[in-house]
């Protein structure tokens, strides 16, 4: 089960990282276009700033699951590392379950939030804000899935020192 969860997590993470990289590339080109427009061509394009905002929101929200997959998010391990091994594992599993509950909470309330954007329009594009607001529940869903997978993969052992750390 541990290796299956690790493999599924790695596959999902690879896809999400590729999407985030594409969004960041589009963001760089969009901002570059806005700068070139403003200082050289004077086309006075109205959309690059707003589009950059939405690209950045989507990229940042999706990147949360990448941090979860690699256990690169902030962890309060100073206190946990002082605990005996049995309590340490139990507390790390409890923290993972709390984080999972948080992401499920955001998903639950993010869906009506995104649907509420259907009746609102983006200032420049004149489109519904639902696709832009959907970043919240979509990112929460992927983060929840990743949290569940890394919980199964690690089972509270992610704070234990490796052999390389023991040798130092």
From TrEMBL:
Per the record, the major location class is membrane
**What's the short name of a Pfam family annotated to this entry?**
DctQ
| Domain Tripartite ATP-independent periplasmic transporters DctQ component span(s) in chain numbering | 33-155
Give the stretches traversing the membrane.
12-35, 55-80, 92-111, 131-152
Q: Where in the cell is it found?
A: Cell inner membrane
Which top-level group of life is the source organism from? Bacteria
Name a biological process GO annotation: C4-dicarboxylate transport
Q: Which InterPro entries match?
A: DctQ, TRAP_DctQ
The keyword Cell membrane appears for this protein? yes
Q: Name one GO cellular component term.
A: plasma membrane
Protein keywords? Cell inner membrane, Cell membrane, Membrane, Transmembrane, Transmembrane helix, Transport
**Membrane-topology annotation of the record:** Multi-pass membrane protein
Q: Does the keyword NADP apply?
A: no
One GO MF annotation is: transmembrane transporter activity
- Could you describe the subunit structure of this protein? The complex comprises the extracytoplasmic solute receptor protein and the two transmembrane proteins.
What this chain does, per the entry, is described as:
Part of the tripartite ATP-independent periplasmic (TRAP) transport system.
What family does the entry list?
Belongs to the TRAP transporter small permease family.
What protein name applies here? TRAP transporter small permease protein
């Amino acid at each position: 089960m541990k290796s299956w969860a690790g493999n599924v997590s790695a596959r999902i993470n690879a896809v999400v990282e590729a999407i985030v990289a594409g969004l960041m590339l589009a963001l760089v080109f969009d901002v570059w276009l806005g700068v070139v427009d403003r200082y050289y061509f004077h086309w006075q394009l109205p959309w690059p700033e707003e589009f950059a905002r939405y690209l950045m929101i989507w990229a940042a929200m999706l990147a949360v699951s990448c941090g979860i997959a690699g256990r690169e998010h902030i962890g309060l391990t100073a206190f946990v590392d002082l605990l005996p091994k049995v309590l340490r594992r139990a507390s790390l599993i409890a923290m993972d379950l709390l984080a999972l509950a948080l992401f499920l909470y955001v998903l639950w309330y993010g869906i009506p939030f995104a649907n509420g954007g259907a009746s609102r329009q983006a200032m420049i594009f004149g489109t519904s804000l639902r696709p832009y607001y959907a970043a919240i529940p979509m990112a929460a869903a992927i983060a929840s899935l990743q949290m569940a997978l890394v919980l199964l993969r690690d089972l509270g052992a992610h704070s234990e020192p490796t052999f390389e750390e023991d040798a130092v």
